[in-house]
Amino acid sequence: xxxxxxxxxxxxxxxxxxxxxxxxxxxxxxxxxxxxxxxxxxxxxxxxxxxxxxxxxxxxxxxxxxxxxxxxxxxxxxxxxxxxxxxxxxxxxxxxxxxxxxxxxxxxxxxxxxxxxxxxxxxxxxxxxxxxxxxxxxxxxxxxxxxxxxxxxxxxxxxxxxxxxxxxxxxxxxxxxxxxxxxxxxxxxxxxxxxxxxxxxxxxxxxxxxxxxxxxxxxxxxxxxxxxxxxxxxxxxxxxxxxxxxxxxxxxxxxxxxxxxxxxxxxxxxxxxxxxxxxxxxxxxxxxxxxxxxxxxxxxxxxxxxxxxxxxxxxxxxxxxxxxxxxxxxxxxxxxxxxxxxxxxxxxxxxxxxxxxxxxxxxxxxxxxxxxxxxxxxxxxxxxxxxxxxxxxxxxxxxxx
Length: 401
Known about the structure:
Elements: H1 9-28, H2 34-40, H3 45-73, H4 76-95, H5 99-127, H6 130-161, H7 165-185, H8 200-211, H9 214-244, H10 249-273, H11 279-302, H12 308-334, H13 341-365, H14 372-392
Helix pairs in contact: 1-5, 1-6, 1-7, 2-3, 3-4, 3-5, 3-13, 4-5, 4-7, 5-6, 5-13, 6-10, 6-12, 9-12, 9-13, 9-14, 10-12, 11-12, 11-14, 13-14
């Protein structure tokens, strides 16, 4: 890392982690409230699930907006504007009184939250070489992985004592804290390029330059499709665990925290493994692991042997694979870019969330009152990611990363 950030390394990494986690935290914290929100709005759970899908779509599209802005104006100004949008949208979520407005305001909330995700990835590229970047991504994943442990439990706690609107009051408080920390303690890592054009033709050209890079394209698809299984789980877990298996809101929060801890375990082991193996080697093994677990889930569903205990264990193992795949494929996808780090980070995030929105939407569309839709979408994502990795990965020059 450059000298200007050495003395504040811990604070900077913490803020980058919080910026990366604000989106996931906004997703996870209200999951236990799906049934309560549906009852309050006199609608169905699958309608409330669409507010999760709209959030994914907002993150996917929003990142394409912030990427060029981060390359043009530097990292901090667009980031702070995005955080202000997040704060405003969260206030609107608190005030909403019907599911249609909630779906729309969640989309706006996502547009604000994704600024932190894009900026954090771009700033990592500003400071680190690819192999070290993979270790930093693992460190940030620790912060991100904590959010699924804390958020649903916190959401369930609030539901047991207060109205569901207070979940969004808490998110508002978190957004304000992150804004203040970013404004005062996060240094600018890239001054921007005054000659960077924001004309549509130039922006599209820059995105195409990134997307047509073979290293970016393959690792982006491998990581994004593998990660989409996580979003399928997020979309379906509330129904499967609470309604199908009969867990209470508190029990659901604890179960969610348990399976999410798999990502903490994986990302920290990954940091140690990167001292001996490359990101390519680690992610391939993780792909095989995740696909094997996915096949076991399918077998259990088809044979009608999927008990809650078995499901919990298999999802833990599934997310364990995700904890190895995500940081390594992200670092590899972004490794060819420096001057276009903002655009590359935006495109990576857009593809990740776009595919995540598709899979979460599929879980909602295929909803049939059983765990089948969630399990099948998760399994399809893992196996497809593995196939792409092994059929396309040989053509990439990984340079030992």
